[in-house]
Amino acid sequence: MNEEDSFLYDTFPQEFLWGVATSAFQCEGGTKAGGRGVSIWDTFCLDPSNILDKSNADVTSDSYHKYQEDIKLIKELGVNFYRFSISWARIIPDPTGSGEVNSAGVQYYNNLIDGLLAIGVMPLVTLYHFDLPQTIEDKGGFLNESVLVDCFKKYADVCFSEFGDRVKYWITFNEPKEIATLGYGNGCLAPGIKSPFDGVYQAAHNLIKAHASVWHLYDHSYRNSQNGKIFISLSSNFFMPKDANCPEDVEAVELAHQFSIGWFAHPIFIDGDYPPIMKNKIAEISKIEGREKSRLPEFTEEEKKFIKGTSDFLGYNYYTSRLVSVPDSDMPTDIDMSLFFLYVVPQGIRGILNWLKNEYNSVAVFMTENGFSDSSGTVDDPERVQFFKSHINELLKAVKIDGCNVVAYTAWTLLDNFEWIFGYTCRFGLVSVDFDTEEKCRTPKKSFYFYSKVIKDNGFPAISE
Ligand code: NOJ
């Protein structure tokens, strides 16, 4: 079957939302401007060997100074919402010390939010997108439950009270699995802690509690007056059996999904606790290793009640898929972050949405990222156009044919920007940025106009419509 045969000409439901995303550390720059404190990524970049091209994000696409240009681009793109993250250290530069709120930081986000509302675009704010204030890390970061939970609540409280009159969509944490596995497991992302398994599970455990605390804070103190939604944004590959007729491969696929999605989604969307298959597997391995207790920490009954039901949507970032087979992989956690492994598998977006629907009782899914990188950043980007076309079409099939409950789609990312350990060697933007000029000139790519048309058409209407 060729692509045209299987292509679905149809439109999304009328209330479907379209967006584009960025994150503070990746695009703001201005790391020393306006009283901003230091984040773990500033520190991580000080060692050039941590970043492929030995770069840093001190300036990057300079959205701290150029946000008005970004707003013009966002308007031209025609999205319903703009997903950006707040730099925690810009709002509270020293959370474990003075804890003072930085008014210049608040002003920056007020300007951005007001600018978006003036063009009719809703702000969707991520509270945490990988950039922990350094002073929290100095006290153990995600491994220190009381400091993390306490500081995250205080920071969220400031954001809700300063911005919540205008912000109606909040994300607590972006990609908790990556925060735990890459930040505290193999150490390939900031803060670069290498504590495979013990650190990983503890960081994730504390993160889930911090998430639930902030959801309850919003639910209890702000929801009535501000009337918004608050959720967490997960990510995982979609896994498929290498041999669909091999029961072991099929079983391994389930294990992989539970270890990478269920780890967070099962406690939050099902019963406040980790997936049974995950608990059993880790307990089994811990025993073989001669440990008295499982490496996976336990929630108390009270904590389970507190965690269950704490997300208004299931936020999801989809990039790629994997074939799983037992002899190839008896290690189901997915802690590899090379972009060279971002195979383009559009069917995976449909596959994962169906898995989420079946596993979590038709939960409403908010797609918070999906995008394509190249190394050139050229304005003529047919591969990215093809990526968006095929993925959005598979998403349409998930919604229209399979009945998946998807409320929104978000393209990653508005601008070429700092791609973490890959620096500027990977470009995901719909808009190219000339990093060699002081102006950081922005030029929309062909994919920008393609996505804009999809939004305008609300999908791919049949020619006769
Ligand atoms: C997901 C992360 O949220 C984002 O920061 C990153 O740039 C993209 N993946 C692409 O790697």
Intertermini distance? 25 Å
**Which hetero compounds are present in the coordinates?**
1-deoxynojirimycin
As a percent range, the share of strand residues is: 5-15%
Averaged pLDDT: 95
CATH superfamily: Glycosidases
The largest pleated sheet is described as:
8 strands, parallel, barrel
Protein name: Beta-glucosidase
GO molecular function: beta-glucosidase activity
Keywords: Glycoprotein, Glycosidase, Hydrolase
Family: Belongs to the glycosyl hydrolase 1 family.
Account of the protein in words:
The protein contains 17 helices and 14 strands. It is of the alpha/beta class and 465 residues long. The chain has one domain: Glycosidases (TIM Barrel), CATH 3.20.20. The strands form 4 sheets. It has an 8-stranded parallel barrel with strand order 2-3-4-5-6-8-10-11, surrounded by 5 helices. Strands 1-14 form a two-stranded antiparallel ribbon. A two-stranded parallel ribbon has the order 7-9. Helix 8 packs parallel to helix 10 (198-221), helix 9 runs antiparallel to helix 10 (198-221) and helix 16 packs parallel to helix 17. The model is unreliable at 329-338 (pLDDT under 50). 1-deoxynojirimycin (NOJ) is lined by residues 23, 26, 174-175, 317, 369, 412, 419, 428. Residues 23, 26, 174-175, 317, 369, 412, 419, 428 line the site of 1-deoxynojirimycin. Pfam families: Glyco_hydro_1 (PF00232). One of its GO terms (molecular function) is beta-glucosidase activity.
